[in-house]
Specification:
The chain has about 100 residues and is mainly alpha-helical. Helix content is about 40%, strand content about 10%. It has a single domain, classed as Glutaredoxin. It is built from 5 helices and 2 strands. The longest helix has 11 residues.
Length: about 100
């Protein structure tokens, strides 16, 4: 948030843990991130470890899993126009801005 504020950005915050994303919204975000749906999964999350680790799913199945279990989605995700990044690395955030 500090990087965004410093750059003059006024981000809209979407609390997808409270209001889960639709399949269409997830597909749009994944396309903007230019990643596979599985790359959006938090692999250390207990829910993943207990239920999904070591199993194979199609992209469509991962999107459904993520829409039903938003706690599995990496965060924060920053979106600007048609581009997006997972905001864990400062360099990626700055590249997006």
């Amino acid at each position: 948030m500090a990087i965004l504020t410093e750059s003059g950005e006024n981000p809209e915050i979407i609390e997808y843990l409270k209001n889960p994303l639709t399949i269409e919204e997830l597909q749009d975000i994944i396309a903007k991130l230019k990643i596979k749906p599985e790359d959006l999964v938090r692999k250390k999350e207990p829910l993943f470890v207990e239920n999904y680790k070591g199993k194979s799913f199609t992209d469509k199945q991962w999107i459904k899993i993520l829409s039903e279990n938003p706690v599995l989605i990496e965060r924060p995700i920053l979106i600007k126009g048609n581009k997006a990044v997972i905001g864990r690395e400062e360099v990626k955030i700055r590249e997006l801005l």
